[in-house]
Amino acid sequence: MDPIYLDHAATTPIDPEVLQIMVETYQSAVGNPSSIHSFGRKARKIVDDSRHEIAKYIGARSRELVFTSGGTEGDNLAILGTAFANSHKGKHIITTKIEHHGVLRTCAYLESQGFEVDYLDVDRSGRISIDDLKSKLRHDTILVTIMFANNEVGTIQPIREIAHLLAHHQAYFHTDVVQAFGTVDMDVKDTPIDLLSMAGHKIGGPKGIGFLYVRDGVSLKAYTHGGDQERKRRAGTENVPEIAGLARAVEKVGERLHERIQEGLKARQIMLETLDEEQIDYKINGNPEHFLPQILNLYFPGTQVETLLTKLDLAGVAVSSGSACTAGSVEPSHVLTAMFGKGAPETGSSIRISFGEGMNETRLREAGRIIAQSVRELTTIGKSGELM
Ligand SMILES: Cc1ncc(COP(=O)(O)O)c(C=O)c1O
């Protein structure tokens, strides 16, 4: 069978129209946007128009966007940039235990630089509590960074409540929208978010490009030093073709937001129906109400996640888990550990299935049956004690 890709939360295949625009831009816009001659002006116009399109989509002003190399850089710039620019007001930061490493490791670095970081707990569905956040807020808190939706389990945080809570506090509010962008309506005019980071490669855009929204008036210190690009917030020649591709990808998901949500929900339903028909024992990890439709994290009791992923890969189904291989040993997912506790069975027996454009029902059912078969084989082997 042709392998089936169900790992869109890791990255998405590039949209052919986006690719086309990039190829055309590579061919037609050869100048450096900082050059004053006609070649430079042509490249500059592409960057400006793209910025305008993207800003419009999130309800921002063009000058509030900084192009970055993706989610990790956006997270780093938001966190380091505000921390170092505002340390005279305080050195306290709040985040959660389930952030992407782009946030967690940046916060850990800041701790090594004398900042103090509180990591909020989450409940078993992956949500933080607003009361907990309130109790951790201090007069010297300068930044709260909480992801819009989690990349492993898809749980959406109470972003509007957090934003409104912080609207009257000195702390800036940063949210990583890398996974939520394209299936959640996002408008920074409605929700007082100060900084928001996204990556193009999760929405059919090119890899290695994204943006950070920085609300006018936010005090941010650049950490790349060089040219004056991006209003001195990010030095270096702009990646013009990828910026053009990113703008088209954003425009496309904007046009299809509603359909994308429906398609995600449908894919999810087909997968769960298939597992039910196959009488497989599973449990959904995540919040039953506040979730991204395209991410389905499932716990299969009695399985061992690495063995299951390898088996699925060999059978032609590409999915993933949040566990990471470090120095030859497997670290369980920090997200599932925060949700269920250290050593809980969910942390070693769960996989993430994530859906995207171009899925069809037949293929999804086929993948569901392969998953069911693999789970059945592993749990049967486990029970008989032949292999563990
Ligand atoms: C929530 C979240 N934040 C940040 C990132 C990092 O983005 P990038 O790979 O573009 O650096 C990812 C990527 O998986 C993500 O899921």
Automatic annotation (TrEMBL):
All copies of domain Aminotransferase class V, residue ranges: 4-357
UniProt keyword Ion transport present: no
EC primary class: transferase
E.C. number: 2.8.1.7
Signal sequence, renumbered to the chain: none
Catalytic activity: (sulfur carrier)-H + L-cysteine = (sulfur carrier)-SH + L-alanine
Cofactor(s), by name: pyridoxal 5'-phosphate
PROSITE patterns: AA_TRANSFER_CLASS_5, EF_HAND_1
UniProt KW keywords: Iron, Iron-sulfur, Metal-binding, Pyridoxal phosphate, Transferase
Top-level taxon in the UniProt lineage: Bacteria
Sections of the chain in a coiled coil: none
Family: Belongs to the class-V pyridoxal-phosphate-dependent aminotransferase family. NifS/IscS subfamily.
Name this polypeptide is given: cysteine desulfurase
Organism listed in the record: Sporolactobacillus mangiferae
The organism's taxonomic lineage, starting at the top: Bacteria, Bacillati, Bacillota, Bacilli, Bacillales
